[in-house]
Design goal:
Length: 309
């Protein structure tokens, strides 16, 4: 199962900050691969969709918030590959639908709403059983595509990143970071920038995910996973929280380098990297690759929220 997409561009970033820091900075433009299913979302969906197809499932169910990039991408991919899709949405229905959910419905996704308390149990066997009883035989993909199939897909991102010492990316569930860590050679390193507040728990979850993958028998590297760390200082107040400073940075970056950033993930990571470069954290001569993991569709809804629309 494959999606017709363009190989991602690697775009070099040069400005006063990079020159002062003495580093080679580039961006892997995963956002440019496909109009609807792009960024890390396709990599996390790929092997889930393949397994669903191989097991003859016709319906895929997954979970997400009202502005979820994963919901958006799953709806589009389901439509492209002929799956019925159901999105279990955190919270109550709010009409009119925001752009993300409106798009999902246009792609044929059926939306189901769960109150926040029930949604916290979205991994529970009991809830999955109730959903299967309500909607029939389902292939369930966890929120954000965060499972071993998702990790396996994200291991393929590294094929575009061999010539770099350090890879930086934003983190939500940590699935993409786990896949990257399993794909690099031991001389390279990974730095993740959690977009959640109080995300220290994420380190253990990523460690567990990596170990679970290594124990699974799925294709894995023959060498030890590369070193990785998380930097928790650039969440801007928490998930989907932004302020004028971040919006200004995003606009200035787009004006200077012709790369649009999404506010929830990549803008925070890009800001963090630039700030750390100014502090001299990266060694001179370091070859740094930033992953642009897509999610630009969410900016429309975010801008409407900020304007009170």
């Amino acid at each position: 199962m494959s999606l017709p997409f363009f190989p991602p561009l690697t775009q070099k970033i040069e400005n006063e900050i990079t020159r002062s820091a003495g580093v080679d900075l580039s961006v892997l433009r995963l956002d440019s691969m496909h109009q609807l299913v792009n960024g890390n979302k396709w990599f996390k969906l790929k092997y889930n969709l393949r397994e669903a197809h191989q097991q003859n499932y016709s319906t895929i169910l997954t979970f997400g918030g009202a502005y979820s990039n994963h919901i958006f991408a799953t709806a589009a991919a389901g439509n492209l590959f002929g799956f019925r899709t159901i999105g279990v949405i955190r919270g109550h229905e709010s009409l009119p639908l925001n752009p993300t959910l409106s798009f999902a419905v246009q792609q044929g996704m059926q939306l189901v709403y769960l109150n926040r308390e029930s949604y916290r149990n979205n991994h529970s066997i009991q809830l999955h059983g109730e959903l299967k009883q309500a909607f029939g035989d389902l292939f369930i993909i966890p929120e954000g595509g965060s499972n071993l199939n998702g990790v396996r897909g994200c291991m393929e991102i590294v094929g575009y990143a061999d010539a770099f010492d350090t890879i930086c990316l934003a983190c939500g569930t940590g699935t993409t970071l786990a896949g990257i860590v399993l794909s690099l050679n031991p001389e390279q390193r990974v730095i993740g920038f959690p977009v959640l507040k109080n995300a220290e728990f994420l380190a253990q979850e990523i460690h567990n995910l990596i170990q679970k993958y290594l124990d699974s028998g799925l294709p894995a590297p023959s060498y030890s996973p590369t070193g990785w760390e998380l930097i928790y200082d650039y969440h801007f107040g928490g998930y989907a929280k932004v302020n004028d400073h971040l919006l200004m940075f995003s606009q200035e970056f787009q004006n200077s380098h012709h790369i649009q950033l999404d506010y929830v993930y990549t803008a925070k990571m890009f800001y963090g990297v630039m700030n750390l470069l100014q502090q001299g954290v990266f060694p001179r001569g370091d070859r740094i690759l930033l992953l642009h993991t897509g999610g630009l569709q969410g900016n429309i809804g975010m801008e409407q929220r900020l304007k009170g629309g």
